[in-house]
Amino acid sequence: MTSTNTPLTVIARMRAKDGREAALHDALTALVAPTRQAPGCLAYDLHTEVGEPARFWFYEVWRRREDHAANLEAPHITGFLGQAANLLDGDLEVHFLE
């Protein structure tokens, strides 16, 4: 397990419901600026998969695991999670890397 002083890399993958690609893209784009301002955020980049316009990826790097955990409680993240069921086809897939 990552120590609290080791940077944490997070890869998140999600797929939009049919017809909800633009709405999901807009909702995800709205997360970028406030998350980049979060304490401990070193990188927070949104990507669309080549050839799969409904599939989105976040690449994140956090100073510490605790910084990432604190950001998950931020209003912009909890607000997105509240609307995610209307936008996502399936579950949000998240991987933590050392």
From TrEMBL:
Keyword Oxidoreductase on entry: yes
Q: Which UniProt keywords apply?
A: Monooxygenase, Oxidoreductase
> What domain of life does the native source organism fall in?
Bacteria
Domain (ABM) spans 8-96
A single GO molecular function term of this UniProt record: monooxygenase activity
Q: What is this protein called?
A: Antibiotic biosynthesis monooxygenase
